[in-house]
Amino acid sequence: MRHQRSNLPFAALVLASTMAFGLAGHFAAEAVIRHQQVHQLNELTEIVLRRSEFAVDFAAASLDELAKRDLASCAPAALQAIRLHVYQRSAIKDVRLVNPDGSVICSAYSETLEFDKGWADRRDMLPSHDRKLSLFRVEQFGGDALGVLGDVNRSSALVAIVGLNAGLFDLMPAELRAHSDVILALSNGEKLGEFRLDAGKPLQGPISFDKHSTRFPLHATIRLEHAVLSSWNSEAYWPALAVALGLGALFGILLARSRRMEGPVADLDRGLAAGEFKPYYQPIFDLRSGQITGCEVLARWVRRDGSVVPPMNFIPLAESSGRIQVMTWQILKSALADLHGVLRADKTFKMSVNVVPKHLLSAGFVETLRRTVLAARISARQIVVEVTERDELDDLAHAAAVVAELRDHGFRVAIDDVGVGHSGLSRLKGLGANTIKIDKFFVDTITVDASTTTIVEMLVALARDFRMTVVAEGIETEEQRHALIASGVEEGQGYLVAAPLPFAKFSELVDSRRRSASAAPAGDVLVA
């Protein structure tokens, strides 16, 4: 009996500890799931806004081109040229010449005037942040459109009528589509576009996620029923609760938590000292011929036991702990040594290396890069500095000055992750880069989502206007390659040709492709 009584406090303690951890796990799991849901919905709202900004950028670039070609005229030849311009840009429905007050003088497609339900006065149009453009809703019987006005001179202006297809906003996950709507509006509340499966069915207890453009008078909103969140992306709840309950019985391991927290950074330092961070190489290839034209250098942590740690497991820690700069220089020197023969043999071959914005803007970056490449006896024109757009460049003027200095020394600059990052296309133009890299997000959906094709075509057209080249990332299928070619993209990278490879295997691939190219009849495609 005494033995049974002596076990009661122990059992009670274990039970209390398990219940406490279980309760904490319940609230923590719910908090994490809700945070992730809010994060994803905010990202989707941001994407709606970015797509809309791309549409405005696309229209603005078109108006600039027409103005530079002196086509702001109602002469038959000018209107014919404008019609051809509109025909080549599917997102634009019409271009009109207007008076300073906004009233229409003439239209490239005069018959579209019959579909207008109304036309805004210049005083009712909303200026962009830099006041170079004015935006307004064009009410038409077939659905509303967006008007983008840009002044040509004091006596006239051009207006591009941009069709905002509902497909541009059809981006909600399948389980949320029937319980949500996506809305794009002007800052004065006028609705420009909306996607909703059942427009006649009101949302029950909706919650909203809003984003305002810092460049244009645009406002994106995603509304969805609060109840649907309880089942969306909640698969992690029960595993998390099980882990919490297990930790309740083994709470003693928390005593080692402070010691474990020091471990990862110390591991990084040991890896850097031992030279365990190695460059891997992913080919960049011509989409039509399959010829390998360059590569992107990617960091991998190769431990002493031969195991390879993926970048997502150490790059964020390297950035937050300040080790990323040392790691970047270490990777670059190794890559220059590996690729010395390839780069010297083929002067058109390009090597891209990733640099985080904070490193790019650090003191002495350009001079250190120049000395490192010069010491390797490699031409600066073969080195591409890739700056990710996911991290915002806080000082655009400083960044543009650094990019200009890099280009003065012969280096090329690429902006990575374009389309899902912080910068609009006008900021990218101001940065002065040579190349934009279309994010894998768009490549994944280009064969199944017509709106993605439109966005990629916009990016290609704008890049061409800005005299930039375009590279698509994450190509995995032949269907994606063909769709990108049809959209005007010329180069890409992805698992369709190869995953990131250690140098020995990358070198074998390059040699194999060159032998195949020399043996194959002219025009044969080497991809696949």
From TrEMBL:
Catalyzed reactions: 3',3'-c-di-GMP + H2O = 5'-phosphoguanylyl(3'->5')guanosine + H(+)
Enzyme class per UniProt: hydrolase
Pfam families the UniProt entry points to: CSS-motif (PF12792), EAL (PF00563)
GO molecular function: cyclic-guanylate-specific phosphodiesterase activity
Annotated ranges, domain EAL: 261-514
Enzyme Commission number: 3.1.4.52
Domain of life, source organism: Bacteria
PROSITE patterns: EAL (PS50883)
Record's keyword terms, sorted: c-di-GMP, Cell membrane, Hydrolase, Membrane, Signal, Transmembrane, Transmembrane helix
Membrane topology classification: Multi-pass membrane protein
GO cellular component terms listed in the entry, alphabetical order: plasma membrane
Signal peptide positions on this chain: 1-22
Subcellular location(s) of the protein: Cell membrane
Protein name: cyclic-guanylate-specific phosphodiesterase
Source species taxonomy: Bacteria, Pseudomonadati, Pseudomonadota, Alphaproteobacteria, Hyphomicrobiales
